[in-house]
Amino acid sequence: MTGHLGSTGMTPAMAAATATGAPIVELVDIRRTYRLGARELPVLKGIDLGIARGEFVALMGPSGSGKTTLMHIIGCLDRPDGGSYKLAGEEVSGLDDDRLARLRGRQVGFVFQFFNLIPQMTVTENVELPMLYLGVGAAERRRRALAALERVGLKDRVTHHPAQMSGGEMQRGAIARALVCEPSLLVADEPTGNLDSRTGAEIIGLFQELNALGLTVIMVTHDHGVAAKAQRVVRMLDGSLVASQARDQAEAGS
Ligand code: ADP
Ligand code: MG
Fold first, then answer.
1. If you take atom 20 of ligand 1, which residue's CA is the nearest one?
2. Among 23, 149, 195, 251, which is disulfide-ready with 154 (CB 3.0 to 4.6 Å)?
3. What is the mean pLDDT of residues 199-219?
4. Cα 65 to ligand 1 centroid, rounded to whole Å
C-alpha cells in the first residue's frame, strides 16, 4: 500500500492502481432504486469504488445507508439499475440470471450476519451445497467440504447440525461454505454482528489469515475495532460513499 486512497475525485481505476495489483472490483456510477408500488426509493446514488486483488476493505455507515444493497451487488446476488460493475474484468450489469450465478459461483463467497445455514443439513452438507451447482462429484464434494471445515477449525464438528453449534461455529461453517469453491473475493455483511466480541475477534482473525493467503475481503461492520483490522475503510452515507482511507487515517480519525 502506498499512501491513502483519496476521498473524492479519484476514479476507481486510479484508486485500484494506488493499491496492490490489478483491480478485482470496479464499480463506476452504480445506482440501485427500489420500487414500492408507485414510489421510487433511490438507495445507491452513484457509487465509484475500486478494490485491488488482495485488499481487505471494511465498509461502514449508518443503518439504512445502503451497505447491504451494495454488498449484494458486489457479491452478484443483485444487479444495479445503472452504472458499470466489472468483477475480475467481466461486466456484470448486463448478465442474465444464469450467467450471473455462474460468475458468482466462480468468483464470490458470501458470508451473512445470521450465517444462513440450512438447519436440516449437517454443516458438511451445507458446505457441499455450492459445489452441487458447479457439477462437482459426490466424493470430491465431501473431500473438499471436509478440507474447508478443517481450514476454519471445525474438524471436530463435521456431523453437527447448525442447532448443535455455537454462533462462532456456525459462522465458521458459513465461511467454509463461502471458501469451498475457491473464490477470489469474500463478501461479508456484518459477519460479527451476531457474535460476542471475543468470538467476533476470532472470526476477523480468520479473515486476516485468509487475506494473507491472497483472498480479497470486503466486510461490512459497525465496529470500529473490527474495521481497524482492515487495510482500508470505506464509509457510506445515504447511498453515497463519503470517504476512503487507509487504516492509519481511519484510526486517527475515529
Ligand atoms: P444498510 O445495510 O446500510 O442498513 P440496506 O442496503 O439494507 O442498508 O437498505 C438501504 C435502504 O433500502 C433502506 O432504507 C431499506 O429500507 C431499503 N431497502 C432495502 N432492501 C429493500 C427492498 N428489497 N425493497 C425496498 N426497499 C429496500
Ligand atoms: Mg445491512
1. 69
2. 149
3. 96
4. 8
Q: What angle do CA 195, 201, 204 make, to 5 degrees?
A: 100
Pocket test for ligand 1, best of 41, 112, 219, 235 (most atoms within 8 A of CB): 41
CA distances from 76 to 1, 26, 108, 216 (A): 27, 13, 8, 15
Separation of alpha carbons 111 and 123, rounded Å: 15
* Exposed / middle / buried, residue 42 (Cβ in 10 Å: 0-12, 13-18, 19+): middle
Residues in the chain, total: 254
Ligand 1 lined by 114 (C-beta under 6 Å): no
Beta carbon of 63 within 6 Å of any ligand 1 atom: yes
pLDDT tens-digit profile of 219-235?
999 999 999 999 999 99
**Region 113-142: what's the mean pLDDT?**
95
β-strands 232-237, 56-60: how paired?
parallel
Q: To 10 degrees, what angle do helices 97-107 and 123-133 make?
A: 130
